[in-house]
């Protein structure tokens, strides 16, 4: 089955950390650029971070630079998003996308609140 499945979301206090995972199957993961997006209620979905197929190049939205890190393990068909120094405005549903295949996951909720 061709899919990407996110996990790792939850409730965290401001200043805390979470690591999201996205497990891919059914396609050649190592050839696909991967991205993380997020969407908050009433807002458009925004791209958070992108990583090249080999993992050698990454880029980030200005709002998360220096706090979030995207990485991948092609042997495990998994992409990660390490989120540090979380803020209430990071609250959103986070989605994984296999860019070349235009393939989205179902999302995982991240809530930053005291």
Which features does this protein show?
single chain; 114 residues; mainly beta; seven-stranded mixed beta sheet; four-stranded antiparallel beta sheet; 11 strands; globular
Quick overview of this protein structure:
This protein is mainly β and 114 residues long. The chain has strands at residues 3-7, 10-12, 18-25, 34-39, 46-51, 58-60, 68-73, 78-83, 92-98, 103-104, 108-112. It contains no helices and eleven strands.
Task: Tell me the series of helices and strands, N- to C-terminal.
Answer: EEEEEEEEEEE
Provide the structure class: mainly beta
What would you call the quaternary organization? single chain
Radius of gyration: 13 Å
Percent strand equals over 45%
Indicate the percent of residues in helices: under 10%
**Low-pLDDT stretches:** none
Number of helices: 0
Q: Can you tell me the overall shape? A: globular
The beta-strand count equals 11
What does this structure look like?
The chain is an all-beta fold. The protein is built from no helices and eleven strands. The protein has strands spanning 3-7, 10-12, 18-25, 34-39, 46-51, 58-60, 68-73, 78-83, 92-98, 103-104, 108-112. Strands 2, 4, 5, 6, 9, 10 and 11 form a seven-stranded mixed β-sheet that branches. The radius of gyration is 13 Å and the shape is globular.
Topology:
Blueprint: E1 3-7, E2 10-12, E3 18-25, E4 34-39, E5 46-51, E6 58-60, E7 68-73, E8 78-83, E9 92-98, E10 103-104, E11 108-112
Parallel strand pairs: 2-11
Antiparallel strand pairs: 1-3, 3-8, 4-5, 4-9, 5-6, 7-8, 9-10, 9-11
């Amino acid at each position: 089955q061709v899919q990407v499945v996110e996990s790792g979301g939850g409730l965290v206090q401001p200043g805390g950390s979470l690591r999201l995972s996205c497990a891919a199957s059914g396609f050649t993961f190592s050839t696909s650029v991967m991205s993380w997006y997020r969407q908050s209620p009433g807002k458009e979905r925004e791209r958070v971070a992108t990583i090249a197929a080999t993992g050698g190049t990454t880029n980030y939205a200005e709002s998360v630079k220096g706090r979030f890190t995207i990485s991948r393990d092609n042997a495990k068909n998994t992409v990660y998003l390490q989120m540090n120094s979380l803020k209430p405005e990071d609250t959103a549903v986070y989605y994984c996308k296999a860019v070349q295949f235009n393939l989205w996951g179902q999302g995982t909720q991240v809530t930053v609140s005291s």
